[in-house]
Amino acid sequence: MQGKLMKTEVSFVCRECGGKTLKWMGRCPNCGQWNSIEEKVSTVCAKGRSYTSDDVSGPVPISLIPNDRSPRLFTGVDELDRVLGGGLIKRSVILVGGDPGIGKSTLLMQALGSMASLGENVLYVSGEESLEQIKIRADRLGISSKSFLVVADNGLERILDLMRQTDASVVVLDSAQSISSQSVDSHAGSLSQVRYVAAASIEIIKRSASACFLVGHVTKDGALAGPKVLEHMVDTVLYFEGDRGHPYRILRAVKNRFGSVSEIGVFEMTDTGLSQVSNPSEFFLSERPEGSSGSVVTALIEGSRPILAEIQTLVSGPTPGSGRRTCLGTDPQRLALLVAVIEKKLGLTISDKDIFLNAVGGVRATEPGVDLCIIASIISSFTDRIIPFSSMVFGEVGLSGEVRPVAKALARVNEASRLGYSRILGPRKNLDSCTPPEGSSFIPITHIRELPAILFD
After folding, report:
1. The whole model's pTM is what?
2. CA–CA gap between residue 256 and residue 261 (Å, rounded)
3. Can you give the pLDDT at residue 48?
């Protein structure tokens, strides 16, 4: 194209959300972030069409594009494969976030070590640790394969050259905030550097037959550090959650172009690395106290499998004015709704009470199927009466107090029966269509008015 037909165009783009504005503004009108608008100069033709490097290839009929039916690449860590949707997809980029010291590097090194032991060439790039530090962790995890290649460098250009030369099946970049490019005039970890590093890495991976794990730091609020647009650029976003004071860890997908975002992986941190927890229900209930009011077990559905979890509630007071509502692992708005239903339909005065509710073990009990369990837990703590230890409660509760059926009821019931919970309280429409497992009894409930009379029998 002739130079006279080309011209430059100046636009202003938000580095957080990618939104465009006609002029520079102190605050992005789309996402509300301050000082996030940056000037961007692009080359356009006289008719106004923008041109990029992708324009060298014309449009292709979708019927002529070959189907890529290559099988998924298994990492050897079943819980990680589960969250990924069954394994790694070639040319995919996975962003892994989590608090410092939570175990991100340990998890990815274990996955690479397992793949290397099966003959796959893997590359681990660390911009934060020396080779000696990586070796110490590898010895602790029992990794010694010659197919496991390690690089300690934080120069993006050198790292990209190594990625081309090694032709590894899987690459780990640990972390995006520690790698910098000479093409960007800012320090490592800045928003422009993080975005450039991610874009360059994604471009290399999409043109190869590899998959890439990109490790990201998180902010004090628990969100991935760097521009929010980073999450839109990658194929999958995983969060590694847990309290460093406790051994359990939960891997959760919040975005996955090749699988479900409702699956979770459960791990236990040990002296020799992360141990997979194949039976999360038993793990989450292993320390449940017996003979304690306010403690109830419910059944959640996480992806394709049911998980039993303990809900604990402490009702105290009364206090002047309205009581506090504190939730861990549950929805505060849902709790406020259920408290209003309890007061209206059961006549219990708890608006002036402090209510503290906890989903034990770090699980997220946010689905409607946990409603009836929360109400049972509040009643138990308010009356200081103990619910039988073998009870499991599930069901959705409407604003009129009716107990509604939930999805996958049979899977919830079977999981509870397998772990010895023989007294199952749930929606009548669900339990009427289920056959009680041997040794279990069903108590169908239509309205929460029926709950106090049968809850403590």
Report:
1. 0.76
2. 6
3. 42
